[in-house]
Amino acid sequence: MLELNIKIVADKESLGRAAADHAAKSLRRAIRDHGEARIIAATGASQFEFLDALTSAPDIDWSRVEVFHLDEYVGLPATHPASFRKYLFERLIHKTGITRYHLLDGDGDPPRSIRQIGSKLQSKPVDIAFAGIGENAHLAFNDPPADFDTEEPYLIVELDDVCRQQQVNEGWFAELSNVPKKAISMSVREILRAKEIIVMVPDGRKAQALYILVCARDDTSADTIFSKDWRD
Questions:
Q1: What average pLDDT does the structure give for the chain?
Q2: What values do phi and psi take at 42, rounded to 5?
């Protein structure tokens, strides 16, 4: 049975520190109990403060941490400023010295990358998954309505315009036409297989999406909620 714990903090910096403190404890425990920790790493603006704090946390043996990639654009080179591989190298891997990482190749042979990394991912349980939630309630690059039934670890998905516009608004791309229309995404079921999931949702622009995910009842449609003025 899943246990949901919600913590509300004052600002993005406090959120990042609180999430990093929790994640660091979980990493140390996994390494102590199993000799290693397997994690799924997210990217994007929601992870900035969190990764800054986590990579500075003491007493984590990063040589025993294995990292799996949550999602990546199709057709975007690893040198592009919006590349999630570039992001993870700069904000996590190079800062900690992690040597065991599995990053999705979205501009080479995506199906081959999915097969290889998916097989490694499913070979043993994942201890912790880090994630955020998009403005349209996407998890990884699973835009609603997402596929909740597939057992595949990774999917190639079509990105909707709301998701793509978010990438422009956050400064990753100059305009909507520059944002790739396809991406590789870890499936919802695969994310939920992690023993623990830490989700960070900063910014008021995501309040409606968070409300839908946490508070909406079965008889309340997402379309109805999104059509409301959130100030009400």
A1: 91
A2: -95, 170
